[in-house]
């Protein structure tokens, strides 16, 4: 069987994108893991199915590279909005549903703006902040991000005694660069490696920096794969709404996979 697919990336977070509005895709963990594999498959951080959903322009179903359905993926959401736009499903504004609830997306030629779920609180510790921006994120601060042991410390935290038993977490490292400007690197659960960029992670980092530095959005974020912006409104103590993840999302290539 041949599986037609598209490849998208958003600041270097890359996804196999499949138009599954007919429901043809023979979904299984094994198949998805294989398609995402960088040696035996197409190669990506995750796979996204675009499906029909009543009352919305589409449904986004996101799987991590390990083939398991993941929690929300911010860059994947931005790429799904770009894909829906490329398919002609909407003109400038879309509404879609994902695992964490409804989202709105706005497309311009270069930039996709994605409305994230509201954030209902931040667990604050001396060494780190922890919050759910659609996916769980641990956020910590370093002086020199280039030297951060992202994979080593990331694995320790992800599988460690606090987060391991609750299903693990994504682990983010921030270096403050100046006012409203940070650099972020992320260890991603489900990929079990550092990725070039993580949208829900970048969002968590900006909200953490807001609480610690007293900044107001938008905040500019450098990742290994490019620059993102996050804007937000703090509703009340550590609760955020109107959270937007903003940046490029592009189609890279299309093809068909033999399975
Ligand atoms: N790359 C994604 C995050 C995926 C979350 C996933 N790693 C999980 O925790 O299930 C993003 O741009 O937000």
Automatic annotation (TrEMBL):
Site feature Could be important to modulate the pK values of the two catalytic cysteine residues, where: 137, 188
List of residues binding substrate: 13, 64, 74-75, 170, 188-189, 199-200
Pathway(s) where this gene product acts: Amino-acid biosynthesis; L-lysine biosynthesis via DAP pathway; DL-2,6-diaminopimelate from LL-2,6-diaminopimelate: step 1/1
Top-level taxon of origin: Bacteria
Cellular location(s): Cytoplasm
Entry keywords, A to Z: Amino-acid biosynthesis, Cytoplasm, Isomerase, Lysine biosynthesis
Listed SUPFAM superfamilies: Diaminopimelate epimerase-like
Catalytic activity: (2S,6S)-2,6-diaminopimelate = meso-2,6-diaminopimelate
EC number: 5.1.1.7
Residues annotated as catalytic: 73 (proton donor), 198 (proton acceptor)
Sample GO molecular function, one term: diaminopimelate epimerase activity
Subunit structure: Homodimer.
Family statement: Belongs to the diaminopimelate epimerase family.
Protein name, as recorded: Diaminopimelate epimerase
């Amino acid at each position: 069987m041949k599986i037609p697919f598209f490849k998208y990336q958003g600041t270097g977070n890359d996804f196999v994108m499949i138009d599954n509005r007919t429901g043809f895709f023979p979904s299984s963990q094994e198949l998805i893991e294989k398609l995402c594999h960088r040696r035996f498959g197409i190669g990506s951080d995750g796979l996204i199915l675009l499906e029909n959903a009543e009352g919305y322009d589409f449904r986004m179903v996101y799987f991590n590279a390990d083939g398991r359905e993941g929690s929300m993926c911010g860059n994947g959401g931005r790429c799904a909005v770009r894909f829906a736009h490329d398919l002609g499903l909407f003109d400038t504004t879309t509404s879609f549903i994902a695992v964490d609830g409804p989202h709105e997306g706005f497309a311009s030629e270069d930039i996709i703006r994605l409305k994230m779920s509201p954030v209902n609180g931040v667990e604050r510790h001396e060494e780190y902040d922890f919050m759910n921006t659609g996916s769980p994120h641990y956020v910590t601060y370093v002086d020199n991000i280039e030297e951060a042991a992202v994979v080593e410390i990331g694995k320790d935290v992800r599988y460690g005694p606090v987060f391991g038993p609750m299903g693990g977490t994504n682990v983010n490292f921030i270096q403050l660069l100046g006012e409203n400007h940070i650099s972020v690197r992320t260890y991603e659960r489900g990929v079990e490696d550092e990725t070039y960029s993580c949208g829900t992670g970048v969002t968590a980092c900006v909200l953490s920096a807001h609480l610690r530095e007293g900044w107001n959005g938008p905040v500019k974020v450098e990742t290994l794969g490019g620059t993102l912006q996050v804007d937000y409104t703090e509703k009340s103590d550590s609760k955020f709404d109107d959270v937007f993840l903003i940046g490029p999302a592009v189609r890279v290539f299309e093809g068909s996979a033999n399975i």
